[in-house]
Specification:
Elements lengths: L8 E5 L5 H10 L5 E5 L11 H17 L4 E4 L2 H14 L4 E2 L5 H7 L4 E6 L1 H4 L2 H9 L5 E6 L3 H6 L6 H15 L5 E5 L7 H8 L4 E3 L2 H14 L12 E5 L4 H7 L6 E5 L3
Parallel strand pairs: 1-2, 1-3, 2-9, 3-4, 5-6, 5-7, 7-8, 9-10
Helix pairs in contact: 1-10, 2-3, 8-9
Bound molecules: D-glutamic acid.
The site of D-glutamic acid has 18 residues, from helix 3.
Length: about 260
């Protein structure tokens, strides 16, 4: 039997945002080989229908499985909340997903009011509703659709005036309410933490799921005996179906050997 351990972990996202998850996993599991798929041509997923998101998730999964990925990280809240159940039913490999961290936020809040910034597709999904029903129902949830943020991030306009104005229109109202925790429910948004911090100061705790997903990935790999423990210069391939400039910019400060390829998929 082929040694599955050395096969890569596959990642996909509607674009470059899932690299925030890739970085957390790469920090925890630096010996793992990885393949990352940035479906930027189809971003944003958050405004698409459930069926459309499922079809794109299947397309991405098949690309990764054709490259022998031993497990798949759905590094996108929108794809996880709309498609992971179907992916798990359809394919044999373990899937790791990401959804807005409202459970940790519910445990942390002192004011019983949390903000959740996510896409329309995530906030309207059945899985998000299901998870929301599991937390203390006395907690007030201020849900905000971050329309337009993913597009600006994909264009590399992270620190633009346009970004500041749009972000402020979503975030500043929260500072006037009793919100003390803000959940970042989209893997693109951790790249906005410095800008959000400027708007909310230290009054609001910002919660993202990167570290939790990395720990969960380790647990799943251990459970399936799939950990790659040999240090032989792990390889990291990134594929994008759009221009690679912004993707390269986000991952360029890594001292890991990375290849970025433009490819239509
Ligand atoms: N990174 C995706 C997420 O976590 C972005 C969604 C989108 O493309 O709209 O939801």
């Amino acid at each position: 039997m082929a040694q599955l351990n050395k096969f890569p972990i596959g990642f996909f996202d509607s674009g470059i945002g899932g690299t925030s998850i890739w970085s957390a996993i790469n920090s925890l599991l630096p010996l793992e080989n990885t393949i990352y798929l940035s479906d930027s041509k189809n971003a944003p997923y958050g405004e698409k229908s459930k069926q459309n998101i499922v079809d794109l998730a299947i397309k991405n999964t098949e690309f990764l499985l054709a490259q022998n990925c031993k497990t798949i990280v759905v590094a996108c809240n929108t794809a996880t909340t709309n498609a992971i159940k179907i992916l798990r039913e359809k394919y044999d490999v373990p899937f790791i997903g990401i959804e807005p961290a409202i459970k940790p936020a519910a445990l942390k809040t002192q004011s019983n009011t949390i903000g959740i910034l996510a896409t329309k597709g995530t906030l309207n999904s059945d899985l998000f509703e299901k998870t929301s029903n599991t937390i203390n129902q006395e907690i007030i949830r201020k849900e905000i659709i971050g329309k337009g943020l993913v597009e600006l991030i994909e264009e590399g306009k992270l620190y633009s005036e346009e970004m500041t104005t749009l972000l402020s229109s979503y975030i500043t109202p929260l500072t006037k309410e009793d919100v003390d925790c803000l959940v970042l429910g989209c893997t693109h948004y951790p790249y906005l933490i410095p800008q959000i911090r400027k708007l909310v100061g230290n009054k609001i705790q910002i919660i993202d799921s990167g570290e939790a997903v990395a720990k969960q990935t380790k647990t799943i790999l251990e459970k399936h005996d799939l950990i790659h423990a040999v240090n032989n210069n792990s390889s990291h391939q990134f594929y994008t179906n759009k221009d690679k400039t912004v993707l390269e910019m986000l991952i360029s400060n890594k001292d890991t050997k990375i290849t970025v390829l433009e490819k239509d998929f």
